[in-house]
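Summary: Need help interpreting a holo structure output

Steps to reproduce:
1. Submit the protein chain below together with the SMILES for coenzyme A.
2. Request a joint structure prediction with the ligand placed.
3. Inspect the C-alpha cell block that comes back.

Expected: a single structure record containing both the chain and the bound molecule.
Actual: see attached output.

Input attached:
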Amino acid sequence: MIAATSDAAHLARLHAQCFSEVWSAESFSALLANPGCVALMDEAGFIVVQVVADQSEVLSLGVTPAARRRGIAAELLRAALKQAADQGALMMFLEVDCRNFPAIALYKQVGFVEMGRRKAYYTTAEGQCSDALTFRMEIPALLVGNCMQLG
Ligand SMILES: CC(C)(COP(=O)(O)OP(=O)(O)OC[C@H]1O[C@@H](n2cnc3c(N)ncnc32)[C@H](O)[C@@H]1OP(=O)(O)O)[C@@H](O)C(=O)NCCC(=O)NCCS
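--- attached output ---
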C-alpha cells in the first residue's frame, strides 16, 4: 500500500530492522512531504522512490530479516516501477554498495542493468570505503504486458 505521512513511524521501524543508519519517523515525514516522493510498504518491507519529471530513483528499500527470500522486495520494486510509471517516469535509477550481493542479485533479477561505479562512495562506521554500483531500468519495457511476469 502507499504510505501516508501518518505511516512514518512504521517506516522508521522497518528501516531500523534493515539498516544500521537510522532514518527517524521525522525524516520519513519530511521525505514524504517532497513532491514526487512515494513510499510503498507492507508489514515486513518498504520502498521509497522519488519521481522527478520522467526519471525516478529508489531512495531506500528494505525487508525485515525474518521475512526475506519470500519475494517481498521484488514485489515492492515492481509495484514502485508501476507507481513511478503512473507518475510519468520512463526510467528508474538506483545505487547499491558493491558488496551488497543480495540486493545486487535482486535488482538484476527484476531487470535492472548495471551502468556504472562510483569509487569509494560509501564509508562504514569503521571507516572502510566501498564503491557504489549504479543501475537503471527503462520503465516502459516493464509495462508492456504483465509486469508480474518479469524476473
Ligand atoms: C536486499 C533485500 C531488500 C532483499 O529482500 P527480499 O525480500 O529478501 O528479496 P526477494 O525475496 O524479493 O528476492 C528476490 C530475488 O533477489 C535475489 N536475492 C535476494 N536475497 C538474496 C540473497 N540473500 N542471496 C542471493 N540472492 C538473493 C534472488 O534472486 C531472489 O530470488 P529467489 O529467492 O527466487 O532466488 C533484503 O535482503 C534487505 O532488506 N537487505 C537489507 C537492506 C538492503 O540492503 N537494502 C537494499 C539497499 S540498496
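--- end attachment ---

Reviewer comment: Strands lie at 37-41, 45-52, 55-63, 91-97, 113-123, 129-138. The two ends are 21 Å apart (CA to CA).
Status: needs-info
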